[in-house]
Structure formats: C-alpha cells, structure tokens
Amino acid sequence: MEQKAIVSLKNINVKFDGEVILNNIDLDIMDKEFITLLGPSGCGKTTTLRIIGGFLEPDSGDVFYDGKRINGTPPNKRNVNTVFQKYALFPHLNVFENVAFGLKLKKLPKAEIKEKVKKMLSIVDLKGYEKRAVSKLSGGQQQRVAIARALVCDPDVLLLDEPLGALDLKLRKDMQIELKAIQKMTKKTFVYVTHDQEEALTMSDRVCVMNNGKIEQIGTPIDIYNEPANAFVADFIGEANILNGFMLQDFKVNILGAEFKCVDKGFGDGQAVDVVIRPEDIEVTTPEKGILTGEVTGVVFKGVHYEMEVKTRGCVWLIHSTVASEVGSQIGMYVAPDNIHIMNKLFPTAYNEITASVIHADEEENSVTISVEGNDVEIPNTYYEKGTVLKIKLPPEGLKIAGNGIGQLNDAYIESVIWKGEYNEIILESDERKWIMRSAQDEQVATYVPICFDFSNAVILPVDREGEDEV
Ligand code: ATP
Description:
By secondary structure, the chain is α+β, with helices and mostly antiparallel strands. Helices cover about 20% and strands about 40% of the residues. A hairpin with a 2-residue loop joins strand 12 (about 250-255) and strand 13. The relative contact order is 0.09.
C-alpha cells in the first residue's frame, strides 16, 4: 500500500433538516487501499461516500483529490466511479453492451472498447458471457457486471455502497473474496460501505468505524479488533465482554471486586473505566486457580469452539473454549494482562448531572418542579423554595424509556447500547445534552425514544450563586 492520500476529507459537516449527519469528519484515503466505512444503519456512511463522489456538497469542510481541492466539482469530472447495492444494469443490453456503455459515451474506437471490455470481463470472471442478457444472470454475476462497468472507465477510486447487500450469504462470502482479488489485480482504491463487521474485517486494508456521524476509530482490521478505541468499537467489532471496572493503580484494575493485572497505565487511581475482554481470551481454570470463579449456565457448540455463558458475581461472561465445561459446574477464569483492554468510558461520569432552578415549589405536597430543556419535571419528596438552584446527581437507573410513549423529555436519540454483562448501558442524546441510563431491554440504536425521570435515588443539593454547595 502506498502512503499517499488520494482522497482527503477535512472537517466535513453535513446537516439534514437541522440534524447533524456528519460531524467534523477527517479522513485520509490512501492510494490503492481497500478501506471500509463500517457502522450501524444511519451513522452517515453513505453520506460520506456521496461527498467523495460529488453527489452531495458538505455544509462546511473541504474535499481534496490528489492534493487538489475539489469542492463543487461535479461527479462526472471526478476520477471516481460508484457501484450501488441496486446495480441498475440496463436490462435491454447484454453483458458486453452494459460494460461497454461508458466507453461508448467517451467515443472510444470500437477495437479499443472491445479490448477493454474483454479484459475487464476476464478480471471479473465473466469471460464468455459477452452475449448473455443481463436478466439471465445470477445476482452474483449481475454484481460482477456492475463492477466491470464501473472499473472499465479506469477510475482511480471506486466507491462501493453495500454492493453485496442483495446477495444471499454464501454468494456474499464468495464475492467478498472475489472483490478483494479484483481490487488487488486492478490496483485501484476501493472505498467500501457496509454495516457487516465480518465483511469489513475480511476485505479491508483499513476499517473506518463510524457512529452517529463521527469516526470512532480508523485502523487495520487487526488493530480495530485487538485494540478497540472504546466500548462502542469493541461491541461493534466481534464479540466482547464489556465490563465496568476501576483502576486500582497503574497496571491493576478492579473488575467485579477482583483484582486483574493489565498493561495499561496513566488512567489515574480510582478512575472508572470500561474493560474489554474477548471471549477467546478467557482461560478456563480450576476454581482455585481462577482470578474469578463462576457457574457455567450455558454451553453451545459452534463448530470450532464451545461458547459458554458463565455467571460470576451477578454478571454473565461469554467464553470461547475448545473444551466444554458442564452446565452447573464451577470454573475459574484467568485473563492474561495483555488480553485486558482498558478504555475511557463513553460517558464521562457515573451519574447524570442536572443543574436547574426550582420554578414551582409546593410545600404541602412536598415537591418541586424544575425545567429540563423547556419541559416541566416534578421532583417528589423534595422541597426547596422557588428560585433555588439545584444540583442533581441522577443515577443511570433514574432514567427510563416511557412505556406509554409519553415521556417527560421526548425524542431522545439512542446513540449507543452496550451490554455490560448484567444490563444494557445506553447513551442518549437530547437537544442540549447526553444522558446515561440502564435497561434490561435490548433497545434499538439510532432511534428516538421518550424518557422519564425517577428521582428516588438521586442526590439533590442546593447550590449558592457562585455554584458552591451549601453546607
Ligand atoms: P445505512 O447503512 O442504513 O445505509 P448510512 O450509515 O449509510 O446508513 P446515511 O445514508 O449516510 O447512513 O444517512 C445518515 C442519516 O442521514 C440517516 O439518519 C438518514 O435518514 C439521513 N439522511 C440521508 N439522506 C438524507 C436526505 N437527503 N434528507 C434527509 N435526511 C437524510
């Protein structure tokens, strides 16, 4: 891979209907690399691709092609071609004519067109199919025609938007290998969009993990898998145990009350962290030899390994092992220090902090009302005079998704849902801020939900005008 950026995105911002879709995207795409934009539905992958292709102009930020700024350059003037999921072949033309279409538009001599199409059909393994009607081709063959048609015009960069999405699993897997081979053979830059992490890891030189309009991490598949930048990436790529922990000191982390050695330092003693442990990195030992012990609650044979669920201190861990333990047995668990990955929490504090003044006080009812983003929210069993500024520490359990659809705060956007072995840790975004909550339910990311508050376990303190806590 050459280390020259062929396409660079600098500070790209896009809003649709006032909603942030791309948030300060910075991305260098290297010449001749296979890079994949990976992320959940709606995270902005296609929008990023459209900006590179010239189908959409960013609200702000610059697009460079080979070092030159190309904002405003129309798609047909960019040396870039796109393959879409719906390949949109011309049904009335045969394979040869479909592939030759762009070259005919360019008015190339007939002999040259024939030569180029022949070469391209041989690259995509469709030699001998020239005269076949495209309607008589399988899905995989049609997709190869679409790729040949896009490549025959010799673009430097090929943009592929979920091109295998319509194929069944077996064909999809075969095509993944073929696509990678085509990219190597043609020495083109491929920018590939998918929400399938396995596909991304299989084909790419580098993977760019996106979430909520932002880039979470860019790296080789091995880097992304072994050294995820945060719990979101760890959760999205492969299977992982993602646990709450806190640093006891450098190189020592407390997980569920047990002390594990790790290779991380500099987080600060007592700092709450996310700990990621891959299921294959947990060694099953005798109970005496384990750092933690647990009860095996489930075993499933997965072809190459056994997948075991082990309950330890209220938390369920996933373990991959070539040896199965019996359901109901006690096992020990050991994790080597370099297999424990420590990362900063996605949400900076353990609580939701709300600072708001009392807009209504009811001494008789013993309740106050505050305003949260313009909504009146009553706090029962609390009394302070009207005008008092309150600082509230609301634990994650104090937030609930309103079952009846009517919340105290509506339209909170679910940014991430991460299973922490006991519950889902959910980060939400409302108009003005982010929230952390827990749920036993599996909530859907990138959806909007109504939330309501339960202040029964909140710490509520009045603050004076300087912001100091009153004694
Ligand atoms: P998917 O995997 O589902 O295709 P994606 O990551 O490619 O998702 P985008 O297609 O880039 O996501 O869309 C990002 C967000 O922008 C989505 O919420 C989508 O609804 C919104 N969006 C995309 N195009 C438009 C548009 N023209 N007008 C308004 N909103 C749009």
